[in-house]
Amino acid sequence: MERKRILSGMRSTGRLHLGNLHGALGNWIELQNDGRYDCFYFVADWHALTSEYTNTEPIRENIREMVIDWMSAGLDPAKSTLFIQSAIKEHAELFLILSMITPLPWLERNPTYKEMKAELADRDLSTFGFLGYPVLQAADILMYKAFGVPVGIDQLPHVELTREIARRFNFLYREVFPVPEPLLAHVPKLLGIDGRKMSKSYDNAIYLSDRGDVLKKKVEAMFTDPQRKTKKDPGDPEICNVFSFHRIYSSPAEVESISRDCPAAQVGCVECKKRLLARLEEKLAPMHERQDFYRSRPEDVQAVIDDGSLRARRIARVTMEEVRAAVMI
Ligand code: TRP
Ligand code: SF4
């Protein structure tokens, strides 16, 4: 039986953190290991360019680091196709053609457009490319005729736009594109060390590459129950970010013991964090080993990327033949 195709991408704007691991990336790995899907995952370096066009130097290095993080976390190039967006020039051609049929108001009312512009107020995002971000994303998705697109909730408007663009193309020319489904994962609540959403731009993230002193300092700096000043005060795990981490990383027995001992002032935050640090180190150690392995073998990483791009390009070529025939161009 033909496996259903899955496609998703990530902007190459930096290293991955635990929020990514439990969000998008974790979902990707699960879909890969499910066995029913043929998964395509790519680094969206052109999408990175839409906001980083004045600071392009780190993008290339970020691409490699991102692919290394992916593989270290469990994406397997023997099971999934891993590739780089800019290696497949067909994405640019499809983007151009789709831009002809995408009404401007669809883009102007896109909520992520307004949000990101406000959030990244330090740069000029009043550009054509940035407004067209979802059209490029639609090209990425439709190129592979993906049935499902695993994304975080923040990307839903883009998948919705992709569906509308696909329908419009099919209506104007002919049925070329299946209308893709967004695949939302259940994502556990994981906040940054300061209790806000974990994000690179808030400088509150724990990265998959954090280890040793860096990791220790971050765990020590984590916000806890704000009412709890000393070990003698009873704490409330339910409002403590350290506890939500324990829920993810510690054994049920450990979670149980903290939820009993913290409100009874039997365990202090220092001890509680020490235990969390140990669990995090256990969880991350195998990833760090793999990161070191791949970092010392850049040719192997390049070979994975080249092979994935080759496989992706084969599909992109076929789709573009169909698209050109449909548009008669
Ligand atoms: N916009 C996505 C993000 O910021 C990245 C992306 C680009 C993407 N193209 C895609 C995701 C296609 C899914 C499908 O995370
Ligand atoms: Fe949070 Fe642990 Fe301190 Fe309780 S003991 S407040 S769960 S860090």
Number of helices: 14
Order of helices and strands: EHEHHEHHHHHEHEHHHHH
The overall strand count is 5
**Distinct small molecules:** tryptophan, iron/sulfur cluster
Beta-strand content? 5-15%
CATH architectural designation of the largest domain: 3-Layer(aba) Sandwich
What class, by secondary structure content?
mainly alpha
Termini Cα gap:
34 Å
Computed Rg: 22 Å
How would you sum up this structure, described in words?
The protein has 329 residues and is mainly alpha-helical. It has two domains: 4-190 and 297-327, HUPs (Rossmann fold, 3-Layer(aba) Sandwich); 212-292, Tyrosyl-Transfer RNA Synthetase. It contains 14 helices and five strands. The strands form two sheets. It has a three-stranded parallel beta sheet. A two-stranded parallel ribbon has the order 4-5. Strand 1 (4-11), helix 1 and strand 2 (37-44) form a beta-alpha-beta unit. Helix 3 (57-73) packs across helix 13 (269-295), helix 8 (133-143) crosses helix 9 and helix 10 (212-220) packs antiparallel against helix 13. The chain is elongated. The mean pLDDT is 95. Tryptophan (TRP) binds at residues 7-11, 44, 47, 137, 140-141, 149, 151, 155, 158.
Brief descriptors of the model:
single chain, 2 domains, two-stranded parallel sheet, mainly alpha, Tyrosyl-Transfer RNA Synthetase, Rossmann fold, binds tryptophan, three-stranded parallel β-sheet, binds iron/sulfur cluster, elongated, 329 residues
TL;DR?
By secondary structure, the protein is mainly α.
